[in-house]
Write a structure and sequence with these properties.
Blueprint: E1 2-7, E2 12-17, E3 27-31, H1 42-48, E4 53-57, H2 74-87, E5 94-98, H3 100-111, E6 118-122, H4 134-140, H5 144-149, H6 152-163, H7 167-177, H8 182-200, E7 212-217, H9 225-236, E8 240-243, H10 250-253, H11 255-268
Parallel strand pairs: 3-4, 3-5, 5-6, 6-7, 7-8
Antiparallel strand pairs: 1-2, 2-4
Helix pairs in contact: 1-11, 2-3, 6-7
Length: 272
């Protein structure tokens, strides 16, 4: 994988792509969740190496994509992703988004229709307004003081244990969180949740016109992710796969199982 940077008016975005592109193979675009970075997908990158062309980024304000001003929107994330993919001549990608990465994927599909070959959601949720209660959206916009009041060690424990069930999954999340100081972490989480609520409140229609697979950890305790996925699957007739023994970062908790689900999905749609 080659590391590259893409400049924007708010900062530079760091991303990694396959060193030797193979035109006959699909592009798998991995999009990490809030406060995570490209290391979240290390097991998927290793598994699909040689089977597909690969792209992964550190989202703006995350990991190596810092410093980056915290006034971006979900729509802007999708627009920057499109600009980067265009600059690399990457067309018709398979978007694989975990949590916040799944929201960015849906925004990309909405704002750039017909550009996505397929979408895999990992412990994410729908962007449609009808799935959310008003108090849930209100609470997303008022998290900063709550996080700020908690000791950093407690935030580290809550973040790693709340996102993962296995020792490796918890350790992986904690390592990614330790890239931040407490204040930076609190501001990032608060801004990410606020940006998410603002995108949802646009009340747009998010119709997934490409083949889609929902993957969710059976033990996912992050917010109401499990409830959202059950409703999402039922409302849009999308298959959902529940990963036993996995939490919110299902691909870190159970990489072998998640890799197999993704690969089987791609094979079923003749994408690999």
């Amino acid at each position: 994988m080659i590391q590259k940077m893409f400049p924007t008016e708010l900062g530079s975005i760091t991303y990694w792509i396959t060193a030797s592109k193979t035109p006959s193979k699909p592009w798998l675009v991995f999009l990490p969740g809030l406060t995570a970075n490209h290391h979240l997908f290390k097991d998927q990158i290793e598994h699909f190496k040689g089977k597909a062309n690969l792209f992964v980024w550190d989202p703006p304000s995350h990991g190596a994509s810092r410093p980056f001003k915290l006034n971006w929107s979900i729509q802007q994330l999708a627009e920057w992703l499109d600009a980067i993919l265009n600059s690399e001549d990457i067309g018709n990608p398979v978007l694989i988004g975990q949590s916040m990465g799944g929201y960015v994927s849906q925004a990309f599909i909405k704002y750039f229709p017909e550009k996505t070959l397929a979408f895999v959601s990992i412990d994410s949720a729908p962007l449609g307004r009808s799935h959310y209660r008003s108090w849930e959206l209100w609470s997303l916009k008022h998290t900063f003081l709550l996080y700020l009041c908690l000791p950093w060690q407690l935030l580290l424990w809550a973040g790693s244990n709340g996102c993962a069930e296995t020792a490796e999954g918890k350790s992986s999340m904690k390592r990614m969180m330790l890239a931040y100081r407490k204040m930076e972490y609190c501001k990032l989480v608060s801004h990410g949740y606020k940006a998410l609520s603002q995108e949802i409140e646009k009340n747009k229609t998010y119709k997934l016109s490409c083949p889609t697979l929902l993957i969710c950890g059976k033990e996912d305790q992050a917010g109401f992710t499990a409830r959202y996925n059950r409703q999402w699957a039922a409302d849009e007739n999308i298959p959902v796969c529940w990963v036993q023994g996995a939490g919110h970062n299902a691909n870190s908790d159970k990489p072998t199982e998640v890799n197999l689900l993704i690969e089987t999905f791609l094979e079923q749609h003749h994408l690999v």
